[in-house]
Amino acid sequence: xxxxxxxxxxxxxxxxxxxxxxxxxxxxxxxxxxxxxxxxxxxxxxxxxxxxxxxxxxxxxxxxxxxxxxxxxxxxxxx
Length: 79
Description:
Order of helices and strands: HHH
Strand content: under 5%
């Protein structure tokens, strides 16, 4: 059983890993910027106390950031 992968497969895997790492870094940066822009709202402490409403807001923020990043990556790759 001798399977040959196309020569562009390694490049695609590398691009996927690179964009995945970049996406994670940008999401973390986006959350940190949001946290700095809203200093009077202690999201971290409120999340630790178990407030579900704040968790929904933060989850929505992260999904919004991911949507923007996905649009940019799609535009870069021409997909």
